Amino acid sequence: MTLTFQNLRKQYGSHLAIDDVSVHFEPGLVHGVIGPNGAGKSTLVNMTAGSYVVSGGEIRLDGKTLSGLKKYQIANSGVARTYQNIRLFDQMTVLENLEVCFYPTQVGQVWREILWPPFATARRKERTRACMELLSFFDLQNYADAEAGSLPYGRQRMLEIARALVMNPRVLLLDEPAAGLNHHETAELTARLAELKSPDRIMIVIEHDMDLVMTVCDRIVVMHHGKLLFQGTPAEVQASSDVQLAYLGTANDLDDIKAAAQDRRTQLGIRARRRS
Predict the structure, then answer these.
(1) What is the CATH number of the domain that holds 216?
(2) Are 58 and 20 in contact, with CB atoms under 8 Å apart?
(3) One domain, residues 264 and 179
(4) How many structural domains does the chain have?
(5) How far apart are CA 68 and CA 104, in angstroms?
(6) How close are the terminal C-alpha atoms of the chain, in Å?
(7) What is the pTM of this model?
(8) What is the mean pLDDT of each run of 10 residues along the chain (276 residues)?
(9) CA–CA separation, 159 and 141 (whole Å)
């Protein structure tokens, strides 16, 4: 199983957001995608998930073309994602936010559940068991009956990842999962992501937090002005002079980059607290 971008291009009018990007992602690894703001990182995620239409090239998963499919078709192919800005069903409970993900695969058996109560009871128990297992993994089991919108911001981040995992996706796309998290929450997230690595799953993490990326990622893709600048291991990326100049800066600039990323997380956290 491989997720492949082949000569991928995304154009908005005269602006070329993604310019002839070819790269492949393998299962069993955590892949990081980094680059300055506007480098095209989130555009890659949005095209993969079907939120953006591909202007040129092709996205293939295990030999099957995803580009051109509708979002629900891509999701049914085994692709799940999270967002920079959290998108939960705020007025549903934490448990319901996960249970609703079963609907696309079980809608055809609704009448059977209605007409045969024992079957309905068994299916409901199985859905609850699977969801509670995920909630426990993210230490959210005690929030199961709480409204999702009432959770602390960091818990909402974890819930969104848990929801993406309900259908056991083959591809997990995480778009800035550490945005708005404090140091403790980011450390917890880093540990959880490391545990989620599986030989049956492709994980792609778009992130500005360089400590998280360098700690949890096995391979890193570096984007710059919509182009693929470099790809390699964390050590190879850190040693690349091209990456240092384009993204990390010189060795003396690295602390400034980290400080800017921390400031971004702080600002997002403030906005999240104001919203709650």
Answers:
(1) 3.40.50.300
(2) no
(3) yes
(4) 2
(5) 20
(6) 41
(7) 0.82
(8) 95 92 96 91 94 96 93 94 92 94 63 59 80 96 96 96 95 95 95 94 94 95 93 93 72 56 61 56
(9) 10
